[in-house]
Amino acid sequence: MSTKRGRGVAGNKLKMTLGLPVGAVMNCCDNSGARNLYIISVKGVGARLNRLPAAGVGDMVMATVKKGKPELRKKVMPAVVVRQSKPWRRADGIYLYFEDNAGVIVNAKGEMKGSAITGPVGKEAAELWPRIASNSGVVM
């Protein structure tokens, strides 16, 4: 039996090291007004008994804002991980990691709440989410 790897967006995500488990706090690198995001669940992840779901670059997560504008706090909203500090191996053999964990707030379709992204964005996220790629300055 085959499994679907797509998440309703163009392209296909390769397997990578997952560096952000449920409960992780990451920076919010867009201009929506949020400062950091607390991951409460990961979209499209399978289950294994006693294993925390974890996210990598390009994954959509459900998150809450812990610091930021009061109108954004205390609400559950989707976000996409664009940077992780845990090293992962790409298909061409190189290992890559960023200096922080960061994400951007999106809606259910993948359209960004903010209009700009500060800092670099992982290629995995840019290939899966075209709106993130168009708003990012540097894609690595």
Automatic annotation (TrEMBL):
GO MF annotation list: large ribosomal subunit rRNA binding; structural constituent of ribosome
Any Gene Ontology CC annotation: cytosolic large ribosomal subunit
Record flagged with keyword Transferase: no
Assigned keywords, A-Z: Ribonucleoprotein, Ribosomal protein
Keyword Magnesium carried by entry: no
Family in the record: Belongs to the universal ribosomal protein uL14 family.
Name by which UniProt lists this protein: Ribosomal protein L14 domain-containing protein
